[in-house]
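Q: What changes when DAU is included in the input?
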Amino acid sequence: MRTYLVTGGAGFIGSNFVYYMFRKYGDDIRLINVDALTYAGNLENLKGIEDRKNYTFIKADIRNKEAIEKIFAENDVDVVVHFAAESHVDRSIVNPEVFVETNVLGTAVMLNAAKAAWENEGGSFKDGKKFLHVSTDEVYGSLSDPKDYFYETTPYDPHSPYSASKASADFLVKAYVDTYHFPACITNCSNNYGPYQFPEKLIPLIINNALSGKKLPVYGDGKNVRDWLYVDDHCKGIDMVIEKGRVGEKYNIGGHNERENIQIVKTIIKTLQEILPNDDPRKANVSEDLITYVEDRKGHDRRYAIAPDKISKELGWLPDTKFEDGIRLTIKWYMDHLDWMENITSGDYQDYYKRMYRI
Ligand code: NAD
Ligand code: DAU
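A: The predicted holo structure follows.
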């Protein structure tokens, strides 16, 4: 039975990935979730699988070498799926250091521990081992020509402390491949949306604010473009790269779904107006009058757009969920999980929101 070590499995994509893997492989895998439970990690996300016999949660920080080495010593790990990171660009602008510590040093700790556990005498690696480093399209910088896309060959040009830290981590992984022939792959994915996303990110923040009749903050002119992918399609891509991706290669993941931020905000408003029953008092509050243009993000990348040709041609990956369906599913999920939202927005989130948005 194959053992997966997932880092950051209590976060947004990580928890969706854990569900995806149990839906797909059931009892045929063992999965260990290692997470430090920062503000972004939430064990409530994993309630649906926490009692499975083939699932283990370990609270540990990826910066803690001893703790990570102990996990490798006690478990015969076959695949590492490395999600754990500080993930929010705005936080990285205010406090870059922790992004370097977790995203760069934490990745170095993970790479070193896996290398030590998987290396044969003589420097080759045991069969069937793979390290999948989950990265982002933000490492490529920003596109100005509307006909341009990010390819795997696009030079790295990160602008935010977040994307610079992820780019550094990607280069570390590449260095392990080039230097030691370490069995790793990198995936660079576009913006994900779906259940369990922390409401500091655009889509859950707008849904939550709209349902509460609060202002909807739009940075700058609202015309920055992001390329949105339903989270399960990302999980499917990661699983395919683990199964069939060539060692040492990187794969872009994205579904050709570019939208200006203001379009996203207006789509959420329109969908909420359609979904909310007429006798729901929240319905009257949900309108475009809530849209509030606020100060732009510093160094705000203008446009991201992924060319997924390589993963499609080589591995047969294609997204299953159209944006129109995915955004409806997502909005309904948040409406059905108001207690989840309430629990994570009741504490420190209020201070974060006040510091971040003076509206
Ligand atoms: P998230 O912020 O929702 O979750 C991050 C998780 O990592 C949390 O559970 C947190 O507790 C954990 N974590 C943070 N620091 C840790 C540490 N030092 N030790 C152990 N655990 C720690 O992030 P996400 O949006 O789910 O992103 C997951 C990964 O995917 C990240 O590497 C991110 O760069 C990448 N990614 C995200 C997107 C996106 O749109 N969200 C797109 C492409 C790539
Ligand atoms: O592209 C992949 C990246 O997508 C991931 O690597 C990151 O981890 C993830 O956070 C996400 O980064 P973005 O900065 O693109 O996502 P965010 O949801 O923060 O913002 C999306 C866009 O919406 C961006 O142009 C900024 C804008 N925005 C965001 C917020 C939170 C607003 O206009 N208002 C807001 O309140």
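Observations recorded in class: Residues 87-89, 136-138, 190-191, 201-202, 205, 217-219, 224, 226, 261, 297, 304 surround DAU (ligand 2) (CB under 6 Å).
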